Amino acid sequence: MKECNCDLRDGDAKTAVFGSNEMLQPAPVDTIPMEPTTPQIAYQMVKDETFAQTQPRLNLATFVTTYMDDYATKLMNEAISINYIDETEYPRIAVMNAKCINIMANLWNSPEQAKWKTGALAIGSSEACMLGGVAAWLRWKDKRKAQGKPTDKPNFVISSGFQVVWEKFAQLWQIEMRQVPLTLDKTTLDPEEALKMCDENTICIVPIQGVTWTGLNDDVEALDKALDAYNAKTGYDIPIHVDAATGGFILPFLNPDTKWDFRLKWVLSISTSGHKFGLVYPGLGWVVWKDKKYLPDAMSFSVNYLGANITQVGLNFSRPAAQILGQYYQFIRLGFQGYKAIQYNSMEITKYIHSEIAKMAPFVNYSDDVVNPLFIWYMKPEYAKNAKWTLYDLQAKLQQSGWMVPAYTLPENIQNYVVMRVVVRQGFSRDMADMLLNDIKNAICEFEKLEYPTPTRIAQDKNIAVKGTVFTHNAHSNAAKK
Ligand SMILES: *Cc1c(COP(=O)(O)O)cnc(C)c1O
């Protein structure tokens, strides 16, 4: 055959992707390539670099949605080009957003009478927490100014089980964070201890529904009651912002009688993650205020060209709209009963794993209660004394079968405890739970045959001997902050 003089390897429509020169070159790291390549080659390179490192549904570390049905996925993909902020171009999306806020406000028993409830769309709970926190800060500031009092030393009170966003809030806005320590006996925010940390400069108290570290709920009703007495005694009016990143979509469906929301006097704002148990792909968060009067004017922009007065609040300007379609789809598709069924299954499977873990000789659960679809456990101290392995070894072992089950140390005061956490989301069945439990049992069997301690065991023992503290594994402890 005659050689052709064209260079097929250059990357044109006829080039086989894996016969191209690009596939022999390293991918760009520092500078943009001089020349274009075909979309097929570019697609392949980017796709191959982002091969899932685990199966997302075997990732029991994350709280964030990893399963939506085909219609939801189609709907969101079709909306991928829509910028939420272009309200004039897509006014119906702004209205849909307002409907989602109404639905959530009513799930949380909002007393607001207006047709459109007061809330905001966010990229996740982080932005939603920031907005709730800033609103509390500005309200406090306005009041202090009106009284001619200084406004330079604001603080807020939260348990040491806070999610990292509250550290960001404190640092970015320069608001002091006062932490109520968690202990093994006091596993959630202690209202009395929280009030001891309050003063005239406290902008709000932040209880958490679904503490990231432990899965537990702070008792908002008890806090509200104690705070009511405290405010009456001191003349302050310190409010509550509830960080309900997880609980905001669990409690209304599974514990409708538990009072943690706008039924309580001092709860003025609530934030949640639409992309956690709201069952939408990332990034989606929501914040709702009890009434428009609690949203400072300085934060809100009203638009009236939609046939209604719609209030817009946010840190970002442009943002994807697809998540709003995803959330509204889920509300319509599932309805109250559908959400309840999914959250119920997640809870039942969590309780099942929780009870099976309790039966395993090496382990003890951190709490007997399972109030959200996640829980943590640790190694029994008496077992740990003679064990040749740690939970970090178990994490690594499970990873070999594709599971991501994080081991990490608890926050300050109880940082000596290495724990392991499982978050059960939609997409995780009882059958999968049995596979996980079997893998854990098999791993324990193997570990018990070890003749010599593993490196993490040696490091942990050394640390206990030298400092009286357990080995802290930084790379892993970050997993808890997700
Ligand atoms: C996940 C979480 C956050 C942060 O939420 P994102 O949606 O990831 O931004 C804040 N607070 C708590 C309690 C969380 O669990």
Automatic annotation (TrEMBL):
A single GO molecular-function term is:
pyridoxal phosphate binding
What's the Enzyme Commission number for this chain?
Answer: 4.1.1.15
Q: Which UniProt keywords apply?
A: Decarboxylase, Lyase, Pyridoxal phosphate
Q: Give the matching InterPro entries.
A: Glutamate_decarboxylase, PyrdxlP-dep_de-COase, PyrdxlP-dep_Trfase, PyrdxlP-dep_Trfase_major
Modified residue N6-(pyridoxal phosphate)lysine is at which positions?
K276
Originating organism: Phocaeicola vulgatus str. 3775 SL
Q: Which cofactor does it need?
A: pyridoxal 5'-phosphate
Q: Which Pfam families match?
A: Pyridoxal_deC
Task: Provide the protein name.
Answer: Glutamate decarboxylase
Its taxonomic path starts at:
Bacteria, Pseudomonadati, Bacteroidota, Bacteroidia, Bacteroidales
Keyword Transmembrane helix present in the record's keywords: the answer is no
So what family is this one in?
A: Belongs to the group II decarboxylase family.
Catalyses which reaction(s): L-glutamate + H(+) = 4-aminobutanoate + CO2
Q: What PANTHER family does UniProt report for this protein, alphabetically? A: GLUTAMATE DECARBOXYLASE
One Gene Ontology term from the biological process aspect of the record: L-glutamate catabolic process
Q: Which Gene3D superfamilies match?
A: 3.90.1150.160, 4.10.280.50, Type I PLP-dependent aspartate aminotransferase-like (Major domain)
Q: Cellular component per GO?
A: cytosol
